[in-house]
Amino acid sequence: MSTYDLIVIGAGPGGYVCAIRAAQLGLKVACVEGRETLGGTCLNVGCIPSKALLHASHMLHETHENFAKMGLMAGHVEIDWQKMQGYKSETVAGNTKGIEFLFKKNKIDWLKGWAVIETPGKVRVGETTHEAKNIVIATGSVPSALKGVTVDNDAGIVVDSTGALALPKIPESMVVIGAGVIGLELGSVYARLGAQVTVIEYLDAITPGMDGEVQKQFQRILTKQGLKFILGAAVSEVEVEDGRAEVEYELRKDGSKHEIKADVVLVATGRRPYADGLGLDALGVQMTDRGYIKVDGHWATSVPGIYAIGDAVPGPMLAHKAEDEGMAVAEVIAGKHGHVNYGLIPGVIYTMPEVASVGLTEEAAKEGGRKIKVGKFPFMGNARAKAVMQAEGFVKMIADAETDRILGCHIIGPNAGEMIHEVCVAMEFGAAAQDLALTCHAHPTTSEAVREAALACGDGAIHV
Ligand code: FAD
């Protein structure tokens, strides 16, 4: 039996970041992980493999769409699916091994196996019980089930995101249930690789919660790229017959029933927090009615000495939110001050174009009764975006009508996921739109569009 200052359960972005920061602060740390590799959902079956496939399929799309326009006569580009899968797996392995290296460098013990919390201060892994002054639960989330639908990733016909990242072959047709981030990213991958992709969404708009104008433009662009959308539709059943799936759905507006057949159905209707098997019931750890672990402002659960972070606790299910909480809770446990600004967590969709947002949407600002001004700038007016043939989309900045303070920013366009950060930093410092408008931006960059949107909050953008 070993004794630690801290045992972290789960080595996803929340858990491994927490372990590293705690070790850097001088604590004796162990991290329990039941998977074969470190990095959690994000590195193994989430952010990283999906971005590898998005990148590879985007390259293919470029050869079809833009190469000839630039005088690059590539001819017919063949897809070797096994090699593409290999590239994805190597990308994953490079990243997960990187965490193993960081654990060794920071003298963090990786306790391999599934953890059970016996009592506060005691964590059992396999036959061995380890002692710890503090425990952080970072056990993440898993895909949520949909009534009437049985997922079987091994069969590769009705799959969740994990199955969709490793299909045995590229399907000719795919139905994606759920028009959220994961469904649209993976739907885009297969559409670019040649599948006929139909997205069925219960609500009347894609990417719920996102700025309304961005939603509409995003749907238009994806439709142009070949994705089909059936909105306002409730899937009631998916049946598998002769190696194909049949999806039954009902249109909410008139109750009419329809069917659609596909080689593969991807169920992407969200994720649920995961804390199964930890023994939290017996310990009396309080949960929310939606199955998240309840925590206070310092990520402490209802049981002293036990903390929780990441997807297992309320808030956006995002890797960087989990990482920030991991760092902050380590600081708290080490007797310092940990802080996460939940109002400033960016959200990015890594399609092409990318979609990125931070802070309030126009709708949320108005619902909250705020007087706002909106500065918009289209990428059609941005020289760099035109030069790289990615001039669809816009930057939309929301600022307080009286103080000019930036309240939110929504970008659909090239590099949106990178560009959003200058707005995050500006907002973190309480900047006004005028502050960004007066900041010199290098030319030609797509970031100039952010400045132009800030200018549009004042006396007007230049290039429109
Ligand atoms: P996880 O990463 O889920 O890690 C939890 C770990 O705990 C797992 O490895 C699990 O095996 C382990 N564990 C659970 N129970 C036990 C136990 N009892 N004992 C030992 N180990 C245990 N987010 C982004 O920000 N950007 C993206 O681009 C993005 N893309 C995504 C794409 C897909 C397809 C998916 C599915 C998710 C994506 N996400 C993305 C979400 C992101 O992966 C999660 O928000 C993030 O991984 C949450 O981190 P976490 O540390 O809370 O938990």
UniProtKB/TrEMBL annotation:
> What UniProt keywords are attached to this protein's entry?
Disulfide bond, FAD, Flavoprotein, NAD, Oxidoreductase, Redox-active center
Enzyme Commission number(s): 1.8.1.4
Q: Which InterPro entries match?
A: Class-I_Pyr_Nuc-Dis_Oxidored, FAD/NAD-bd_sf, FAD/NAD-binding_dom, FAD/NAD-linked_Rdtase_dimer_sf, Lipoamide_DH, Pyr_nuc-diS_OxRdtase, Pyr_nucl-diS_OxRdtase_dimer, Pyr_OxRdtase_I_AS
Organism of derivation: Paracoccus acridae
In Pfam terms, one family for this protein is Pyr_redox_dim
**Protein name (record):** Dihydrolipoyl dehydrogenase
Cofactors per UniProt? FAD
Lineage summary: Bacteria, Pseudomonadati, Pseudomonadota, Alphaproteobacteria, Rhodobacterales
Q: What else is known?
A: The active site is a redox-active disulfide bond.
Q: What's its catalytic activity? A: N(6)-[(R)-dihydrolipoyl]-L-lysyl-[protein] + NAD(+) = N(6)-[(R)-lipoyl]-L-lysyl-[protein] + NADH + H(+)
SUPFAM superfamilies referenced in this protein's UniProt entry, alphabetically = FAD/NAD(P)-binding domain (SSF51905), FAD/NAD-linked reductases, dimerisation (C-terminal) domain (SSF55424)
What protein family is recorded? Answer: Belongs to the class-I pyridine nucleotide-disulfide oxidoreductase family.
Q: Could you tell me which residue ranges the FAD/NAD(P)-binding domain spans?
A: 4-326
Q: How is the cofactor bound?
A: Binds 1 FAD per subunit.
Cite the Pyridine nucleotide-disulphide oxidoreductase dimerisation domain residue spans from the record: 345-454
